[in-house]
């Protein structure tokens, strides 16, 4: 509950507009999840500005608005007039983030609950919830909402604090140096809890030592007489405490998670049971007094000291329970009451939460986040919970924010997987290292599947489940008889809860049981672009388009997907993994060098090199195990000699030129074709795999030429068949022919442009259901007014005729954003076209936004794709450039990062 007078006094804000509201239910900074009677806080973020959504907040029922005064003065007259007519409070402050922090600090002093701060690398939220649940049995206890744990999240959460609360249990996160100290200054905790220290957010801390120093700030920030609870099994924490007691006179009482024990005894933790009902453990005491020489071994005294149980899953949660137990006792709660409170603890959403899965499987949804420590704990839990006759399947996504430790972290998990998993499915490029290391450690390749999309990961799991024998269980709620136990885990940005939803037996329950299910999260997409100009690739569209092609040609016809030019600018590696999971069985590249990164990434599917392979590169072709295109006897003989030298076999495809005028034996030279096919089938080290041709005008309105080429190719095939020389794979159809010429599909089709959701030509539209996979975007880097009569860009080729508001964009011809002879003409900003002014520079360009007054720094700009109701397609751009869509998407240079 937020009282207006408290807010005004704490923030030194001014009441610009007053209404009947004297209090608000809570703070909210996201209109997508705002509920009536809340106070909307307009926060400026890295990718958005809450001040853009003031009217939306009012429409959603906000009782008040907390706005930055300077921004309010810059609002349009129409917006300010609309707000003036609403029955809402408008509070103006200098900085809304600082205002929230001042309010948080003030309200804690006004209502003075005992503040308990929980931090650590992992386990913060579960520990915070356990402590709050124990205290709530005897005290009015507030807990920070979900994992709101930073300088913005905690103040937002404290909007729900009330005068009745005696304790406030708050989670403290940190992803940069100095954050814990700043949080402690704001919250003034008197009790601190440190769960553990392990690699997390190392991209900003550079080392585990620096992270440890940051987390230890909680201890040094506690006041004299405070209490600090810590995990005594963590060696890094023990070293910190040793240094703390050596360098200072301790003014804070430090408590290990293990209970205080009588003198002369030692204790050890024992987890006595880990099963689907939860975890049980005890603290055992052992007498360490010296025994008399004649004493029997049975005289050694050992007994249970404390027994605890909860419904949490995983042995690592025993530390969670111990922390809550110790604090409960410290706060004067009777031990039996603490133990009872712990038995009621249940897994939180996304944190090893068991859910019924498809085909009698059981899902371990651990999709909230991932670090090496939590990933390891998840795998251990998977291993311990799977019955002897159940398959252990791990679906693992990337672990992010680990800095230089990122590669080794994934590889270490790969080594662990071998002992604890029967089948491994990875989703993402970092996670692929887990698969690579698991294979190196001895996991059979047929038990490893690498994917790039949530849908493909889920489909891979479904295929595994379909191959497993059914159990006698009549319901998926019987965890002990599940056909498989599936762990699903990855960092927050990987959104692995989407995989969980696709595998749930009751997916309609996702909104209640999974993390990140609010409207705001549903519309949030993380990107890891290295610069503010990027290409977004919808891999799901590529997967869907591939399935459409496979369905169109039928199961008897193979699908080879062309990955030339880095998959037409879409990213060959991710596209390769996606199409292979969705119906393609072969890949095509232009050069041997294009095959190299695919093989290095363990793409083992057949690859055909369409282009010229010089003799000096034949060894590399054989090493990579690719199929080679041949069109001369000399080439075939050279390949044979190379194969013999390396003791390898190389598959070849004979290329016939039926009217393209490019690589291949001319169709008129039938004798040479026949001789080459015969020799390719007989030369040692060669295996004749296929024969093909390529159409020059399959996408033309006049189909005369393509039918001529097809007739010529059929003549060659008839000659080969008569001689018994027809190769196993005959192929001719590119995207246009695949769509428009069924008789050209033969044994295999070679779609390229259609896979990426782009039309082969205006004469060959894509069937319904295909969709583009690529969007090209940038951000506004500056907005400013240029007086009349001023030149814009190099050469001053454009002179302003009137005062003009321009937006500078960080994209130029070095990105593939064409300068001449024609340019893009316009881009999309706020769903409107913004014309390009003057010449496009190497790295920047300028556009006219005079008619789009809401434009500001950081706004998204669409160069190819949809924004609002407008679409700027690759085809439209191609028409403006006097080019075609192939060149447009393939011409986006490699320095533009691809994200999905």
Automatic annotation (TrEMBL):
Q: What does this protein do?
A: Catalyzes the interconversion of L-alanine and D-alanine. May also act on other amino acids.
**The entry's keywords:** ATP-binding, Cell cycle, Cell division, Cell shape, Cell wall biogenesis/degradation, Cytoplasm, Isomerase, Ligase, Nucleotide-binding, Peptidoglycan synthesis, Pyridoxal phosphate
Q: Tell me which residues bear N6-(pyridoxal phosphate)lysine.
A: 564
**Protein's recorded name:** Multifunctional fusion protein
Which residues are listed for ATP binding in this entry?
Answer: 120-126
Location(s) in or outside the cell: Cytoplasm
- EC number annotated for this UniProt entry: 6.3.2.10, 5.1.1.1
* Every Alanine racemase C-terminal domain range: 773-900
For the ligand (substrate), the binding residues are 662, 842
The protein's required cofactors: pyridoxal 5'-phosphate
**GO MF annotations, alphabetized:** alanine racemase activity; ATP binding; pyridoxal phosphate binding; UDP-N-acetylmuramoyl-tripeptide-D-alanyl-D-alanine ligase activity; UDP-N-acetylmuramoylalanyl-D-glutamyl-2,6-diaminopimelate-D-alanyl-D-alanine ligase activity
Q: Does the keyword Acetylation apply?
A: no
Q: In which pathway does it act?
A: Cell wall biogenesis; peptidoglycan biosynthesis; Amino-acid biosynthesis; D-alanine biosynthesis; D-alanine from L-alanine: step 1/1
**The species this protein was found in:** Dictyobacter alpinus
Q: Does the keyword Ribonucleoprotein apply?
A: no
**Pfam families given for it?**
Ala_racemase_C (PF00842), Ala_racemase_N (PF01168), Mur_ligase_C (PF02875), Mur_ligase_M (PF08245)
Q: Which reaction does it catalyse?
A: D-alanyl-D-alanine + UDP-N-acetyl-alpha-D-muramoyl-L-alanyl-gamma-D-glutamyl-meso-2,6-diaminopimelate + ATP = UDP-N-acetyl-alpha-D-muramoyl-L-alanyl-gamma-D-glutamyl-meso-2,6-diaminopimeloyl-D-alanyl-D-alanine + ADP + phosphate + H(+); L-alanine = D-alanine
Source species, domain of life: Bacteria
Family membership noted in the UniProt record = Belongs to the MurCDEF family. MurF subfamily. Belongs to the alanine racemase family.
Question: Cross-referenced NCBIfam families, in alphabetical order?
Answer: alr
């Amino acid at each position: 509950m937020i009282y207006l007078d408290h807010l005004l006094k704490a923030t030194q804000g001014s009441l610009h507009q007053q209404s009947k509201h004297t209090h608000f239910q809570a703070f909210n900074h996201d209109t997508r999840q705002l509920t009536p009677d809340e106070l909307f806080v307009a926060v400026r973020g890295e990718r958005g500005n809450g001040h853009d959504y003031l009217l939306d907040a009012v429409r959603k029922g906000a009782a008040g608005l907390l706005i930055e005064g300077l921004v309010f003065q810059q609002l349009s007259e129409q917006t300010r007039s609309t707000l003036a007519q609403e029955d809402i409070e408008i509070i103006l402050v200098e900085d809304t983030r600082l205002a929230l922090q001042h309010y948080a600090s003030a309200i804690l002093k006004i209502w003075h609950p005992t503040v308990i701060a929980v931090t650590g690398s992992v386990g913060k939220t579960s520990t915070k919830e356990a402590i709050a649940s124990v205290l709530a049995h005897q005290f009015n206890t507030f807990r920070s909402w979900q994992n709101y744990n930073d300088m913005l999240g905690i103040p937002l959460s404290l909007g729900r604090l009330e005068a009745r609360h005696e304790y406030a249990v708050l989670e403290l996160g940190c992803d940069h140096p100095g954050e814990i100290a700043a949080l402690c200054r704001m919250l003034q905790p008197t009790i601190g809890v440190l769960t553990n220290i392990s690699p997390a957010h190392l991209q900003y801390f550079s080392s585990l030592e620096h992270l440890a120093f940051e987390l230890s700030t909680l201890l040094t920030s506690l006041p004299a007489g405070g209490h600090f609870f810590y995990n005594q099994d963590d060696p890094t924490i023990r070293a910190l405490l040793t240094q703390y007691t050596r360098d200072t006179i301790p003014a804070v009482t430090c408590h290990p998670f293990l209970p205080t024990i009588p003198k002369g005894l030692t204790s050890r933790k024992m987890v006595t049971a880990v099963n689907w009902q939860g975890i049980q453990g005890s603290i055992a005491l052992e007498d360490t007094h010296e025994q008399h020489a004649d004493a029997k071994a049975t005289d050694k005294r050992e007994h249970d000291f404390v027994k605890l149980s909860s419904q949490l899953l995983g042995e690592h949660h025993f530390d969670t329970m111990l922390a809550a137990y110790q604090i409960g006792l410290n706060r004067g709660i009777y031990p039996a009451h603490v133990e009872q409170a712990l038995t009621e603890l249940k897994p939180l959403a996304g944190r090893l939460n068991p859910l019924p899965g498809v085909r009698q499987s059981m899902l371990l949804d651990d999709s909230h986040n991932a670090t090496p420590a939590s990933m390891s704990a998840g795998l251990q839990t998977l291993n311990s919970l799977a019955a002897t006759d159940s398959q252990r399947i791990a679906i693992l996504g990337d672990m992010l924010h680990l800095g230089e430790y990122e590669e080794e972290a994934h590889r270490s998990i790969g080594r662990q997987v071998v002992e604890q998993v029967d089948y491994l499915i990875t989703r993402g490029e970092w996670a692929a290292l887990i698969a690579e290391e698991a294979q190196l450690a001895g996991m059979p390749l047929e038990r490893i599947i690498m994917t790039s999309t949530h849908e493909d990961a889920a489909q891979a799991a479904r295929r595994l489940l379909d191959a497993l024998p059914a159990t006698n269980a009549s319901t998926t709620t019987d965890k002990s008889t599940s056909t498989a136990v599936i762990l699903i885990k990855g960092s927050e940005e990987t959104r692995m809860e989407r995989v969980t939803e696709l595998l749930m037996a009751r997916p309609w329950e996702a909104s209640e049981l999974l993390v990140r299910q609010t409207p705001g999260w549903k519309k949030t997409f993380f990107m890891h672009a290295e610069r503010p100009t990027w290409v977004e690739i919808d891999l799901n569209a590529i997967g869907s388009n591939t399935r459409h092609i496979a369905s169109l040609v039928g199961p008897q016809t193979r699908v080879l997907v062309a990955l030339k030019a880095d998959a037409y600018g879409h990213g060959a590696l991710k596209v390769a993994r996606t199409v292979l999971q969705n119906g393609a069985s072969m890949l095509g590249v232009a050069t041997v060098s294009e095959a190299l990164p695919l093989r290095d990434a363990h793409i083992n599917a057949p690859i055909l090199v369409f282009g010229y392979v010089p003799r000096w590169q034949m060894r590399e072709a054989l090493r990579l195990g690719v199929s080679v295109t041949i069109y001369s006897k000399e080439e075939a003989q050279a390949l044979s000699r190379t194969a013999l030298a390396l003791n390898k076999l190389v598959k070849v495809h004979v290329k016939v030129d039926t009217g393209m005028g490019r690589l291949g034996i001319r169709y008129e030279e039938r004798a040479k074709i026949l001789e080459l096919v015969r020799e390719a089938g007989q030369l040692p080290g060669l295996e004749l795999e296929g024969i093909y041709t390529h159409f020059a005008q399959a996408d033309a309105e006049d189909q005369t030429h393509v039918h001529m080429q097809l007739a010529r190719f059929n003549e060659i095939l008839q000659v080969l068949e008569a001689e018994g020389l027809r190769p196993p794979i005959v192929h001719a159809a590119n995207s246009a022919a695949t769509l428009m010429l069924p008789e050209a599909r033969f044994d295999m089709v070679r779609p390229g442009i259609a896979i990426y959701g782009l039309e082969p030509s205006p004469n060959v539209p894509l069937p319904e259901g295909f969709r583009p996979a690529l969007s090209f975007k940038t951000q506004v880097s500056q907005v400013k007014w240029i007086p009349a009569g001023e030149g814009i860009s190099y050469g001053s080729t454009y002179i302003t005729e009137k005062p003009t508001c321009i937006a500078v964009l960080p994209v130029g011809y070095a990105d593939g954003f064409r300068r001449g002879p024609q340019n893009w003409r316009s881009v999309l900003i706020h769903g409107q076209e913004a014309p390009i002014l003057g010449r496009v520079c190497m790295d920047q360009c300028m556009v006219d936004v005079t008619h789009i007054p809401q434009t500001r720094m950081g706004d998204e700009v669409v160069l190819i794709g949809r924004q609002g109701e407008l679409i700027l397609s690759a085809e439209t751009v191609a028409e403006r450039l006097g080019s075609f869509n192939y060149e447009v998407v393939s011409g986006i240079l490699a320095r533009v990062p691809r994200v999905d």
